[in-house]
């Protein structure tokens, strides 16, 4: 049994260890689906080579494909795959010139970005810290739980905590932020919070990028609701 598990583990490790496949998996972290041609451009390989790599990733249940019209779109098989890819970036040593004590530029991907379907970067960590500090969330056995006060807080944002807990995915868990080396909120709750912030124009996506911009309205709301100074 152990040998069988080790064999499967080495298979996954070898898939992630390939440069082209790792680049394509990294590109998919923005939460959007891509065609094989688009991913081949990201990885700087031929479309045929990309298709071969994508086939292996699908067979390993790391990706799924959806056909729409004449095109086939690839995305992560589930949120857990995205979590692993983002966490792997935490193993990369930060450059000496990068100082976490120095506030990044507001257009820096380390300042505010999406991590698959939730908010990451300095802002993502600040929001998570504020949710904990204000008693909206509490952490237990490496899982975030919504408090009684928190349930009301999310309800005020039209986020139904009870419905999210019924989804067939992690409800709320810490995700290690590769640039801050601290945790931000992931899971169904993190995804719903990001969607709400985008819908209410607290943040806006930057075109062709994982970066997001905090709007003036967002700064006001984050200050009023979480006492976050930006």
Automatic annotation (TrEMBL):
It comes from the Bacteria. Residues 1-96 form the HTH arsR-type domain. GO terms for biological process: response to cadmium ion; response to lead ion. One of its GO terms (molecular function) is DNA binding. Coiled coil: none annotated. This is Helix-turn-helix transcriptional regulator.
């Amino acid at each position: 049994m152990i040998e069988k598990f080790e064999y499967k583990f080495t298979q996954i490790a070898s898939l992630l260890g390939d440069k082209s496949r790792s680049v394509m998996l990294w590109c998919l972290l923005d939460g959007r689906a891509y065609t094989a041609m688009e991913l081949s451009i990201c990885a700087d390989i031929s479309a045929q080579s990309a298709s071969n790599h994508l086939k292996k990733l699908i067979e390993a249940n790391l990706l799924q494909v959806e056909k729409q019209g004449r095109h086939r779109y690839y995305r992560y098989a589930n949120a857990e795959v995205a979590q692993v890819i983002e966490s792997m970036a935490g193993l990369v040593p930060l450059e000496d010139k990068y100082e976490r004590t120095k506030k990044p530029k507001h257009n820096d991907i380390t300042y505010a970005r999406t991590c698959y379907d939730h908010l990451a970067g300095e802002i993502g960590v600040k929001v998570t810290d504020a949710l904990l500090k204000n008693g909206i969330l509490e952490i237990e056995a490496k899982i975030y739980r919504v408090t009684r006060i928190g349930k009301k807080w999310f309800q005020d944002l039209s986020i139904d905590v009870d419905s999210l807990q019924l989804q067939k995915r992690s409800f709320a868990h810490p995700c290690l932020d590769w640039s801050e080396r601290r945790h931000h909120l992931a899971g169904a709750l993190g995804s719903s919070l990001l969607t709400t912030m985008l819908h209410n124009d607290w943040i806006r996506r930057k075109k062709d990028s994982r970066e997001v911009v905090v709007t003036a309205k967002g700064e006001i709301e984050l200050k009023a609701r979480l006492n976050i100074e930006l």
